[in-house]
Structures are given as structure tokens and as C-alpha cells.
Amino acid sequence: MCYLYVEVHSVISIPPRLIHRGQASVYDTGWYIVLCCGVVLLTMTVFSGYFSHSTDFEVHRNWLAITHSLPVSKWYHENTSEWTLDYPPLFAWFEYSLSHVAQHFDKEMLVVQNLLYTSPATILFQRLSVIVTDIVFIYAVKECCRSVREEKGSKDLLGHPFFILAALLLWNFGLLIVDHIHFQYNGFLFGILLLSVARHLQGRHLEGALLFTVLLNLKHIYLYIAPAYGIFLLRSYCFTEDNTDGSVRWSSFSPVRLVALGSIVISVGALSFGPFIAMGQLPQVLSRLFPFKRGLCHAYWAPNVWALYNMVDKALSVLGVRLKLLDVAKLPKASMTGGLVQEFQHSILPSVSPSITLICTLLSIMPAVLSIWCRPRGARGFLRCLVVCALGSFMFGWHVHEKAILMAILPFSILAVESREDAGIFLMLTTTGHYSLFPLLFTAAELPIKVLLMLLFTLYSFTSLKKLFRGSLLNPLETTYLLGLVAVEILCEVVYPLSPWQHTMPFVPLLVTSVYCSLGVCYSFIRLYVSLLRQHGTDKHKQL
Amino acid sequence: MENWSLVSICVLFGLTARWAVSLNSYSGAGKPPMFGDYEAQRHWQEVTYNLPVHEWYFNTTDNNLNYWGLDYPPLTAYHSLLCAHVAKLINPDWVELHASRGHESYGHKLFMRATVLVADLLIYIPAVVLYSFYLSEGSNKKKVCTVLCILLYPGLILIDYGHFQYNSISLGLALWGVVVLGLGWDVLGSLAFVLSLNYKQMELYHSLPFFCYLLGKCFKQGLAGQGLFLLVKIAVTVLVTFALCWLPFLSDPGQILQVVHRLFPVGRGLFEDKVANTWCSLNVLIKIKTILSTDTQLYFRPVCLLLNDLPLPAIWFLQASTFSMLPLFLKDGLLVPYVVTSLAFLFFSIYLLSALEHCSEDKLRLGPYRRLLICMPRMDLGRVTKWKFYFSITAMAGLSFMSVALAPPAQLPDLFPLLVSVFSYLHFLGLLLYFNIVQIAEPPQSVRKNQKKSN
């Protein structure tokens, strides 16, 4: 059924070649080029005078050096630098190919012993590599825009869902901050993810599967959303037909399709891990990929359930000491004044181990995954499940970094421009999620940039979605909460640093930001789940 | 989308671009003993904070005029004093007499850049928004596009936020004058312009149009009645504003003479000439033109309107003016911001204002040129203009690349700056000629509209 829809949709959306000047269409490229150039030029203006202090810069320089200077057998054994290679082999090959270009900029950056090496040429090369690989992202966004459903009726360009989606993705605050100011290759990786999603929306499932497998071999964090892919492809691709009541028709199982999918996964995996399996290094590679020695939370707590858990634990212990129920000496050190440390020891509530987080994550995504098995709603149902998996893993995962919120926000943008309810949840999630990225940029020079870009994106997302869906998308409580973010920002950046507690308890702004944002993110997660289950319920109701 | 949100987005984008350029180098960074304009501004804060008013413009033991002596009118000095008070609160070392000479630090740079941003936000940007919405024609969309294009003008961004100056204050005040005059409030308009003049004496470039416009308006209202009253009001406003600005110096004629001597010295160097180019170009940007038509109606046609009316020549001119300052930007280490902001400006303004589509002979008002070129009747002047524009931009790009990548021959060390200057000069000449011909030869749109209505 979903394929029929997708096919019809793609036929309808192909416009005649001669397009009337007044009508805007996703096939006019002018506006798209302007949006892309705008963001590229903005990022170039920022980086030209800006010397990055982020550790990720050194991480990637180190990986360039390792892959260029050392033979393949040493890649996952090398540990001169503390930033060892902890991405899958395909990413290492990617760094290897980049290093061939890098040697023309500055050969010194490719020497493994040159720890923390930096030079203008190095910075230029690194920044340019992010911008150039963003081409993948730009192409992927274009493909997503083509797949967007929209109502009939002429609108001016700014009101079209595809324009809004393009702006929300290309100018996404989180991506700009993390990739271009902080430094990562997320544009490239999310480009592949969004392209894979776009292919599924367009009914080209094998391509989508291939892209996802490649992505998985580039960065293994995407394992969290693999269940969504797995179940969706199994249910909606391998079983070619459904019964009239929507349940699975076991007889329509197509072994050919299963074999096709399997061979894609295996061949990409072989390309990536093959050399290491042949060298017998697989255990070593896996140990590098999944280091569970780090703590439950990052040094800055990502705004997830564990942040709230830690907060409650801290509050209870402080209360306990005040009420003389607990002995200060018996409490673990650093839990009272130490603030945010990686190895956070819980004093009152039970400790959380990696296996517990895994179980929680699986439990959180189980209903969503079961839902697309029992009542598949085509590619859009899959997309919703993907977002839920990403968000669920963010909520309950082990050592989650706040950047991971982008894995939920970016795909969710597609749903946000198509449904009113999703737009409301999107606004809540995005604003809170983006604000939680603020501590990534902590110097005074970055303050105006992050505030201005945040205002730009937030203002645009609110006004454009409000206009698209004609009316207010948030209830007063939600609006108050979001306005509270402004107060939190002023408190953390202006008021607190001037107060006497800045020296005794410097972690308080981070704590406040983390806990406040986790309330918003948890709320969005619950709302998203409710909407998913409600849809599931409506479908069931329709069958009866 | 509603206007206010679109305009806010444009302003936020403009501010982000400005701050992003701020992160780059400034004039004279790390170049003792004289440094550059950045140090000059810091020095003025030091002088105005620590010394009494009557010593600001004089050569004394504490104030060596050879080291960046004050050479702008008193309003600049008061602004420096205000900034100095703020600087003192944050870090007294920044304005310590003598000891702070050549002070360069991360925190200080942020502070100085912030002062430019605040001034821009309070004065120039609101003027641009009000100007686009109240004094330009076209749909709301077009007005928003005009705001964005004006805010993206690379010349001003690079000079104020790169090189380091406060042109946005004087320019903003002058633009306020234009806006307010356009709304019919002559006294306030002249007040705004006088303030602008008292910030930078370069505004004298703009004073003639303001003067002619206001005088003409007085004549029109009849010197025997309303006109005279208006003239008196304006004269009083101007004199009182001048008096207030120069108040501390009025006690001693020697003071006044010294200040005037500092403002208009003989023998300015080549360096100032390059920055004077900005003024020449910005002059066109907000040149007020008065037309006395046969109906003796007075019109107000700020040339910003050109971005709406004649987008291609306006963009061309503005880009040429930015290009003319290339040697200065290279000296300050602002190559990447120059390239990026120029590309952004060209891209956005050509796309948003549909500059290349409004390129017919009629739209470009090339009638007089057609008459001149009577011997070549078959040429499509619109297309010729478009191709000249492409060629010109390519040549600018080529010259920019050569200035950076190639070393000049030993016998001609200043070859590239010279080529840039000559090229820009030819552009200025040609485009200024064009603008003047267009304005004089053809009746303004409003007159044409009126004539259409009456027929």
C-alpha cells in the first residue's frame, strides 16, 4: 500500500518542464542554491578568524595522522594519543582518503607524534573538509524536500513545506554549531542518513538499505536506529503484501528480497571490517568501538533521563545530610561539591550499569518497533519509529553526548512540516535540544554567535511553522517553559559568573542547563510516544 | 510570513555576519610602534578619559598628537569617553594613561568589537529598516529584500568590523536624517544630520544635498510666510546643536581653531584616501537628490532607492567600492572575509532583487545612451550592460586573485594597488555619470505616474 502511495505521489509531483514564473516548485533550484550558499558563506566567515579549541579538532587530526602514516594493521592498536580510533573501519578509510589531500596543505599534521599540532593550513584544511563533505548533506536535503507531502493550493515560496524543510535542515542551529564551530563530520553523516530516509520515502528501499549500512560502518552510534530499519525492511519490504486487516501475510514472503538485503549488509561489512577480520584484529577493533569504561554521563550531563536521575540523587543526598538522616562521611566523595564528573557515584538511588541502560533503551523502543511490525504505516511510519528509536536511545543510553539529540531532530524535521501535532512537538524538542548545546561553546567570542544563530533558527522555525499550520502550535505551559530558557541563559551566562558562588561551585550553570533541558526533552519524548500509540490505536480502531 | 519576523531574521543574519567578521584581524594588529585604526580608537578612549577636555585636541606632554591625535569632531570624542567609562569598569588597564599604549588582548578585542556592534544595532540598523519600509517603493517582500541587501553591503562590514571604525554611527545618523526628512519632520531631520556631521567631518559630502533640499523647501513655502518660519527654525536647530556639541570648546576661540585645524589638516596621506573611497561610495548609497521639475515639485530620491529601482547598477557600484578597498583589506589580513562577504552580497542581492532580469534598455533607463549611440541602432544596450557587468566582476575577481597569489615585479612594487585603484576609479566615473544622467534626463516615476493619471 505504501509503495502505491509513494509511486502516485512521485508521479504527481513531477511538474511539467515549463513552469509558470509565479509558481514556486521544489524543482526550481534558484532558492535552494541561495539557501545553501548562504549557509556555506556564513560558516566560512566564522571559521576564517576563529581558532578552534575543541578537542574534536585534535581527534580528527590524530586520525588523519594514524591512517596516513601507519600501516592498516596498526590503526586500531595505536595509542600515542589519548584519542584513539573509535569509529568503524569505513570511517578510517574515509580519513585515509582525506589525508591524501591533507598532505598538500601541511605535511606536519600527518605526523602521529605531533600531538596537538595546529597551524593555519591545518585549520583551513580541516574546516574546508567539513564544508566540502557537506555536499552530501546538501544533496540529501534536496532529496528530502522532493519527498515532502504538501497540500494543493498556490502558496508563495516561503510558505511551501519543502522550502521550510530545506531551511530547517540546512540552517539547523545544532548542525552549524557542532560541525562548523565545534568540529565534526556530522553534516556528511547526517547527509547519508537523510538520503537513506529520502530513498525509503521514495520507495527505493535497496538504496536506502545500502546507504544505512554504509552509515553504520562509518559511525556505529547509528546502531540505535538499526532496529527501526531492520523491522521496517523485514516487514514492509520482505513481505510484499499485507492481509486486508493490515496484519502480515506470511505467504507473501520474498526470499529474493531478503537475500538482496542480506548481501548488501554483508558486502559493505566485508569491505569495512574485512581486512581486520583477516588479520584477526576483530576483538581489538570491537573493544575500541565499544569502550564501556567511561561513566554513565559525559562530563556535562546530556539532558536525558539520567541527568534527572543524578539530580534527584544529589538532591536527596543534600536533603538527607541537612535532615541528619545521612552521615556526610559515608557518602562517596565529590558527590556533594564535585559537581559534574564522569564517574558519578550515586549515593541514595541505585547505581546504573551499562546493561541497565541497554535494557532501558530496548524497553523504550520496543513499543514503537512492535507498532511498525503489527501496523506498518509505510515509510512515514518507519520514519516516526526511527525518530522514537533515536530519542529513546538518547534518553536512556550510556555515556550519551548532547550532540546525539541531532539524530532525533534532523529526521523529525520531515515529519514536522507535514503534520500539525508533530510541528508542536518538534518546536519543543528542537528549542530545548538546541539550547542544551550551548555549553559546547563557552568562550566570550562565541557567545554572540550562538545567541544570534539560536535566535535566528528559533524565530524562523516558530514563525514559519505557525504560518504553515495557521495557528498557535504550543499551549501556554509549553510557551512559558521555552521562555524560561531565556531566563536560564541570562542566569548562567551573566548573573552567575558575577556572583560569589562562581568559584566555589562552578558547575551550577551546567547543572541547571542540563536539568532544565532534560525536562523539555523528556516531555517531547512522552508526547511523541503518545502520538505514535494513538495512531496505532486509531488504526486498530479502523479495523474493527 | 509577517514582516516583523522576516525583518528580524534579516537583522539577525546581518548581525551574525558582522560578528563573524569581527573575529578576524583588525587594522595594525601586532604591528608596533604605530599599530592602526584600532589602536587609534583605543588611544582616544585613553585620552578622553584621563585628560581634561581642553587638552584633547592639543599637543601636550600627556597627549602627543603625532601618535593618533584626535582628528574627528567632538561627538567622536564623547563617544570614546563613554566607551572608556565602560572599559574602566571591565578592566582599567585598557585605558591607563600611557601604560595602555599598544595594548592588545583577547578580552580587549572583544570589548572593542562589542562597542561597534552596539552602536550599529542602536543607530544604523534601525535607520536602514525604517528607511526601507517608509521611503522605498514596492511590495513588502521587496522591502525586506532591500533591508537584507543593504545590511550585507561588504564595504561597511569590512571597514567597521574588520579594519575597525565607527562609520555606522555617522552614517546611521545621516540615514536617520534622510528618513525623518522623508517623513516631513524637517527640524528633527536637520538635527540628526548635524549630529552626524559632528561625528565625522566626512559627512560634509552629504551636507550639500541636505542644505539644498531644505533651502528649496523653504523657498517653495514662500519666503514671506511659512518658508521663512521654517528657515528660521532649521537655522536655530542647526546652530543650537552645533553649540551643544562644541560647548566645552566655546569658551576659548583658540580651542575652536585648534579643533578645526585637527579636522581639516593639509596633507593627508595615501592611507586616508583609501578609506575616503568608502565615503565616496557611501555618498552614492544615500545621496539625496533634489529635482526641480517644471512643476516646481521637490523630490526626495535617496539613492538606496536605486537598489529597488536599478538594482544592477547599484549592486555593481557597491561591489566596485568594496573592491577598491582590496589593498587595505589585504594589509589588515581580511582576505577571506572580503571574498566571502562579497560573494554573499553579490549572490543575495542579484537573486533577491532579480537584478539580471531587470536588464532591458527601458528598465535601465538607457535612453540617453541610445541617443548618443545613434550610429549603432541594432545594439541591445541592455544585453551589452549585462555582459559588461559579468566582465567587470570577472576582472575584479581576477585582479583580487592576482593581488594575493602573484608577487609584483621588482620595478613596480605597487602595481596591484595601482591597478585596483585605476580600475575602481573608472568604474566610479562611469557609474556616477550614469546615475546622474538617469536622474536628470528622465522624469521621476511619480511624475510619470501623475502624467499617466491625468491623461
UniProtKB/TrEMBL annotation, chain A:
EC number: 2.4.1.-
Gene Ontology cellular component terms for the protein in this record: endoplasmic reticulum membrane
Molecular function as annotated in GO: dolichyl pyrophosphate Glc1Man9GlcNAc2 alpha-1,3-glucosyltransferase activity
InterPro entries for this protein: Glyco_trans_ALG6/ALG8
Keyword entries, A-Z: Endoplasmic reticulum, Glycosyltransferase, Membrane, Transferase, Transmembrane, Transmembrane helix
GO BP term (any one): protein N-linked glycosylation
Protein location: Endoplasmic reticulum membrane
Metabolic or biological pathway: Protein modification; protein glycosylation
Transmembrane segments: 31-51, 115-140, 160-178, 221-238, 258-278, 356-374, 381-400, 437-460, 481-499, 505-526
Membrane topology of this protein: Multi-pass membrane protein
A Pfam family per the record: Alg6_Alg8
Family annotation (PANTHER family): DOLICHYL GLYCOSYLTRANSFERASE, DOLICHYL PYROPHOSPHATE GLC1MAN9GLCNAC2 ALPHA-1,3-GLUCOSYLTRANSFERASE-RELATED
Similarity remark: Belongs to the ALG6/ALG8 glucosyltransferase family.
Protein name: Alpha-1,3-glucosyltransferase
From TrEMBL, chain B:
Subcellular location: Endoplasmic reticulum membrane
Broad class of enzyme this protein falls into: transferase
Pfam families membership: Alg6_Alg8
Residue ranges of the TM segments: 110-132, 144-161, 173-197, 227-249, 335-356, 389-409, 415-435
Pathway: Protein modification; protein glycosylation
Membrane topology: Multi-pass membrane protein
Catalytic activity: an alpha-D-Man-(1->2)-alpha-D-Man-(1->2)-alpha-D-Man-(1->3)-[alpha-D-Man-(1->2)-alpha-D-Man-(1->3)-[alpha-D-Man-(1->2)-alpha-D-Man-(1->6)]-alpha-D-Man-(1->6)]-beta-D-Man-(1->4)-beta-D-GlcNAc-(1->4)-alpha-D-GlcNAc-diphospho-di-trans,poly-cis-dolichol + a di-trans,poly-cis-dolichyl beta-D-glucosyl phosphate = an alpha-D-Glc-(1->3)-alpha-D-Man-(1->2)-alpha-D-Man-(1->2)-alpha-D-Man-(1->3)-[alpha-D-Man-(1->2)-alpha-D-Man-(1->3)-[alpha-D-Man-(1->2)-alpha-D-Man-(1->6)]-alpha-D-Man-(1->6)]-beta-D-Man-(1->4)-beta-D-GlcNAc-(1->4)-alpha-D-GlcNAc-diphospho-di-trans,poly-cis-dolichol + a di-trans,poly-cis-dolichyl phosphate + H(+)
GO CC terms: endoplasmic reticulum membrane
Gene Ontology molecular function: dolichyl pyrophosphate Man9GlcNAc2 alpha-1,3-glucosyltransferase activity
Enzyme nomenclature, EC number: 2.4.1.-
Keyword field: Endoplasmic reticulum, Glycosyltransferase, Membrane, Signal, Transferase, Transmembrane, Transmembrane helix
Principal place of residence: endoplasmic reticulum
Signal sequence range: 1-22
Function in brief: Dolichyl pyrophosphate Man9GlcNAc2 alpha-1,3-glucosyltransferase that operates in the biosynthetic pathway of dolichol-linked oligosaccharides, the glycan precursors employed in protein asparagine (N)-glycosylation. The assembly of dolichol-linked oligosaccharides begins on the cytosolic side of the endoplasmic reticulum membrane and finishes in its lumen. The sequential addition of sugars to dolichol pyrophosphate produces dolichol-linked oligosaccharides containing fourteen sugars, including two GlcNAcs, nine mannoses and three glucoses.
Family affiliation: Belongs to the ALG6/ALG8 glucosyltransferase family.
Protein name as catalogued: Alpha-1,3-glucosyltransferase
